[in-house]
Amino acid sequence: MDETIVLCLLSLLLSLVPPTSGQIPCPDPEDISPCTCSYDEENGQVSADCSLANVSEIYSAFNDVVWEFNTWGNVAITELSGGIFGNVSFQHVFIMYSENLVTIDPSFLLAMKDTLVTVSFTSGRLEDFPWDVVPQLVVIEQISLDGNAVTTVPELQSSTLQSLWLRDNRITTLQEKWILPIFSSLALGGNPFSEFSSGFFADFGQFGSFYCQECNFGPTLNSGKLEFNTRQLWELHLEGNHITTIEAGAISGYTAETKLNLDENSITEVKEEVFRPILEVLSSGDGIVSLLDNPIQCVCSMAWLVLNQTLLEHVVGNCENGPSFQELDPFHFEESCMKMNPPMPGGHSTWVSSHLGVIPFPRRGRPAVDRE
Ligand SMILES: *[C@@H]1O[C@H](CO)[C@@H](O)[C@H](O)[C@H]1NC(C)=O
Ligand SMILES: *[C@@H]1O[C@H](CO)[C@@H](O)[C@H](O)[C@H]1NC(C)=O
Ligand SMILES: *[C@@H]1O[C@H](CO)[C@@H](O)[C@H](O)[C@H]1NC(C)=O
């Protein structure tokens, strides 16, 4: 009976493995000795050799040891439920490009509840996921459902979950409370996403990275839209969101090390009231605001930035007509722009051109940025 299990497992592992390198997907050699595991990268095959092992050693190699389970492009899988792996428990399960996968039964996850650390069902047809069993997965760290048809994530609770990858699904809002004390990374890129419930991030004290490239935050990023509450926000990706306007206070909770990426939007102005508060925080560390490939008009309204080298060092960007912000000549801004008094509310100034009709920045020889 033990041998039957072993053979079943082997036939699952053989030929179903994506190209990876090194030891993975073999377990630690000591754990399965005297069986040996080898991985042929060229054919994507894992083989286990148990010629020197007795029956109980074989049983132990496959039942007491954590193997990684992979399938790649297996279109025969439509449903996964408990019992499929017998009593074998995996730590990492990657089921990728199973284009006909529509259902994951809670029993599939519960059968591995004590070992499952990473689970990834990418590029399938899942509209839902058994979220309510997540609290029972006692060591789960990462769930990936990239490239499915998920529309919503309900209330979610886990004391171990760190990252959730939900790219390229159909999520428009996240309204439910998630209780995830060590949650650090959320990827929502490629969803028509624009709404969090208020205070969504408030309890994620270890949150570090938010990815929402090609989400739906434009045209106006309203005040209070993204409020983080963490000491370590590393990355905030909002590329390609058709954002034209950012209101003051739209983003809060950045730190001196935050990289805020706003590339490939439709921002025309680097407004002082929006960007000075951010840059004042970022300039005490290595933080960066990136504004590449926006139709930015490098006119007097950005004199406040061009005339402050300290802040300028923390911005990457280019004018619509080509030059990078760093290539702009501060002398021209000083000559051609003047600060209007009194300053705007919040102490921010308004800079206007002192020569009517004159555009005071140099256009140096860079091709215009190619935008659609
Ligand atoms: C299998 O081999 C191990 C290690 O040599 C030994 O301890 C165990 O008794 C053996 N089991 C059987 C059923 O022969
Ligand atoms: C699976 O584990 C259960 C409980 O430990 C045991 O009763 C059962 O016989 C095992 N099944 C197999 C196929 O080894
Ligand atoms: C640049 O801005 C910083 C932060 O607001 C300020 O402390 C500093 O005095 C400014 N430098 C210049 C040259 O205006």
TrEMBL record:
Residues in a coiled coil are: none
Q: Where is the signal peptide?
A: 1-22
> Is Repeat included in the keywords of this UniProt record?
yes
Q: Which Gene3D superfamilies match?
A: Ribonuclease Inhibitor
- Any one annotated GO CC term: membrane
Alphabetical UniProt keywords: Leucine-rich repeat, Repeat, Signal
State the name under which the record lists this protein: Oplophorus-luciferin 2-monooxygenase non-catalytic subunit
Q: Which organism is it from?
A: Darwinula stevensoni
